[in-house]
Write a structure and sequence with these properties.
This protein has about 280 residues and is of the alpha+beta class. The chain has helices at about 10-25, 35-55, 75-80, 105-120, 160-175, 190-215, 220-230, 235-275, and strands spanning about 65-70, 95-100, 125-130, 140-145, 150-160. The chain folds into two domains: about 10-160, Beta Polymerase, domain 2; about 175-275.
């Protein structure tokens, strides 16, 4: 598939299929088959994912990108079509979904998102930065692509954001997808786990913000250059102490980040054990 290809159906006919799915009725004859629509969007997502994975991006030099693609299942799609605010099927943005996970800082995440947006000509209004304003604890940077072949969503996530999202998604599959939309579960133990996950999302954001600020930047590079070239011992000592302090704090927050990921993995394994018991 090429991104310039166009589907065999119109937006109007796609909308008719969506209304039938939401109503639980038989789709009219003059609209596309559900299987054909989903196959098309699976291929669209795979095409974008292949390009993202194979292309050399200046902003992600030295960063290993984990790129995957997926389409919506019929159950999650119907839930989305029925959930307020009601969105017509022809306007559902993530029928074709691409995920890009990487061990990157928040600044690197922003730079990569902007480079992707420039490449795919994504308008500013189609940027969804969910880091400072998360959706039910979920944080990421989303881009909404609108190409002749259809609509697609690229989700760009740091290692920590990905671990949190995968754990919370597993919780939704086990305890009910309503938790992804801030619906309170009836089980108090599940509600407590939801609260813990939301607290962990807040903590993760603080850790990632500090790691971002402590990452090697221009000022540190300049300080190291002065340290290497300056003939003044007193300046040497001061800069050395400053750089040592930065490095120590960097190691501390790297350890906090690793501990946070380990806690997330522990919760995910606990959920898997509950699934086996049930």
């Amino acid at each position: 598939m090429l991104l310039t290809d166009t589907p065999a159906w119109s937006k109007k006919k796609l909308g008719r299929l969506g209304r039938a799915l939401a109503d639980g009725s038989v789709p009219p004859e003059n609209c596309p088959a559900y299987d054909d629509v989903m196959l098309w969007h699976h291929e669209l997502a795979a095409t974008i994912a292949d390009e993202v994975a194979s292309r050399r991006w200046e902003s992600s030099a030295g960063i290993e990108l984990e790129v995957s693609s997926r389409g919506k299942t019929i159950d999650t799609l119907i839930q989305k079509l029925r959930r307020p605010p009601l969105i017509p099927l022809d306007q559902v943005q993530d029928l074709a979904g691409v995920r890009v996970d990487a061990d990157m800082t928040l600044s690197q995440q922003t730079a990569f998102a902007h480079e992707l947006a420039a490449h795919y000509e994504v308008e500013e209004r189609c940027h969804r930065d969910l880091r400072a304003d998360p959706h039910s604890g979920y944080r990421a940077y989303h881009l909404w692509l609108r190409v002749p072949a259809g609509r697609a969503e690229i989700q760009i996530r740091t290692e920590g954001q990905s671990a949190w999202a995968n754990t919370y998604e597993r919780m939704g599959d086990t305890f009910g997808r309503g938790i992804r939309y801030d619906e309170a579960p009836s089980n108090r133990n599940v509600q407590k786990l939801v609260e813990i996950m939301h607290s962990m999302s807040e903590m993760l954001m603080r850790i990632e913000t500090q790691r971002d600020e402590l990452s090697y930047g221009q000022q540190e590079a300049e300080a190291r250059a002065v340290l290497d070239e300056s003939p003044h011992p007193e300046l040497h000592v001061g800069l050395a102490i400053t750089l040592e302090s930065i490095e120590r704090r960097r190691r501390d927050y790297d350890q906090l980040h690793a501990d946070h990921l380990a806690q997330m993995d522990k919760i995910r394994r606990m959920i898997e054990d509950l699934e086996e018991v049930s």
